[in-house]
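Lecture notes, continued. The same structure-token format from the folding unit now serves as the input rather than the output. Read the line below as a description of shape only.
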């Protein structure tokens, strides 16, 4: 596999600042509703919205809606709902997943979006009827990564910006895919938890389990940690727990204060798209220890790496324990990506029924480069193999069906399913 040089971290993590925390926004007589802008990266049809309540509610019907940007002040939401759904009696400390439609009913028309749209997810009381309930939001800094790192509150008939607070809302397309949260800050509870990892305690190894979204060359891992005198071993495993790359860093080389540090493997590793891996860190010996940091998320599907990237731990090289909706603050250091799409794609033959299902709906970008390749391989499975073998034949000529006719050679070549075979003229 050929690689182009690159340098970036994957997956992206929330930009942690000491001031960041979770804090509920109370909707009551003062703030009737709140709205969060969600940038759209891929076109499609929006389905569900996910958010979480808190507090002891004063029950009144709560409305969740999609709104367009204001016609003359596009940085804030419009005054009317485009699609909505009502929650008759909202409960406290509850995660809601609801689907706004054009008439507020399950069968109503859903919102169609295109790349570049901004959809304002609005939560609040219906008309002038209000109760009291809390909606979870992040309280961050001006350095958070997320686009539209602010929300709006509706007070006394007008929208007022609430910076740098972001409502913790997530949107999904009708096919179940999440609208990505750029930077992840809006999706995550990024008050980092600090946990000690010691070599003679349980667990003694921690990291990330993930599925590689594309082929990549990896040089190491960047780990947020506080070292307490440990030599730190970093390891990259494949799905069968075979060590692909590793290195051990003496304690004197790493931080004795909470910070990120790059751990470089002894040799780069090559990861294959679609394969499962684990990257971990552990203290090397005895009572030595270090502190690592993790954070929770309402919906990891909206973050870089999706639902398949999560915290993983184990003890004494035993069985793994995976923790969904939680991630360790660590990132792969990527130094190369495949030169072409073909380098990271497989040749998969599909049945006619599978092809029809694959190509039936392209409203959310389902027809990918891999899907097109699957079609070609399924219709003409020999093409992928035999085109690569043409290089050994005379360089000018033409293919007609299963026969290759060279321009200036006395023989023709026929494809027998595995190779080109010369036949006299």
């Amino acid at each position: 596999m050929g690689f182009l040089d690159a340098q970036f971290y994957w997956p992206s993590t929330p930009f942690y600042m000491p001031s960041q925390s979770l804090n509920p926004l109370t909707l009551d007589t003062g703030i009737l509703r709140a709205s969060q802008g969600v940038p759209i990266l891929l076109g499609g049809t929006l389905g569900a919205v996910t958010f979480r309540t808190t507090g002891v509610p004063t029950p009144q019907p709560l409305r969740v809606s999609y709104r367009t940007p204001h016609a003359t002040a596009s940085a804030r939401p419009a005054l009317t709902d485009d699609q909505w759904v009502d929650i008759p009696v909202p409960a406290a400390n509850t995660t809601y997943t609801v689907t706004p439609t054009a008439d507020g009913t399950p069968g109503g028309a859903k919102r169609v979006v295109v790349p570049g749209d901004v959809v304002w997810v609005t939560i609040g009381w219906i008309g002038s009827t209000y109760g009291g309930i809390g909606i979870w939001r992040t309280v961050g800094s001006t350095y958070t990564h997320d686009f539209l790192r602010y929300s709006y509150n509706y007070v006394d008939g007008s929208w007022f910006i609430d910076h740098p607070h972001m409502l913790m809302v997530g949107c999904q397309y009708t096919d179940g895919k999440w609208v990505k949260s750029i930077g992840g800050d809006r999706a995550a509870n990024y008050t980092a938890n600090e946990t000690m990892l010691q070599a003679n305690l349980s667990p003694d190894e921690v990291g990330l389990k993930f599925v590689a979204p594309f082929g990549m060359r990896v040089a190491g891992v960047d780990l947020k940690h506080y070292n307490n005198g440990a030599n730190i071993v970093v390891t990259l495993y494949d799905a069968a727990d075979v060590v692909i790359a590793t290195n051990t860093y003496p304690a004197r080389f790493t931080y004795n204060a909470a910070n990120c540090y790059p751990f470089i493997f002894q040799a780069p590793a090559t990861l294959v798209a679609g394969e499962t891996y684990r990257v971990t860190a552990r203290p090397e010996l005895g009572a030595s220890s270090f502190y690592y940091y993790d954070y929770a998320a309402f919906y990891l599907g909206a973050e870089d790496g999706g639902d398949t990237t999560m915290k993983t731990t184990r003890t004494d090289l035993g069985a793994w324990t995976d923790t969904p909706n939680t991630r360790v603050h660590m990132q792969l250091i990527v130094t190369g990506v495949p030169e072409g799409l073909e380098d990271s794609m497989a040749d998969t033959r599909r049945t006619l029924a599978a092809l029809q299902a694959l190509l039936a709906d392209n409203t959310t970008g389902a027809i990918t480069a891999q899907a097109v390749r699957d079609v070609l391989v399924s219709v003409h499975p020999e093409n992928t193999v035999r085109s690569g073998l043409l290089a050994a034949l005379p360089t000018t000529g033409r293919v007609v069906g299963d026969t290759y006719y060279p321009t200036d050679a006395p023989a023709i070549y026929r494809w027998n399913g595995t190779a080109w075979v010369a036949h006299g003229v």
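Point for the exam: DSSP finds three helices and 30 strands in the chain.
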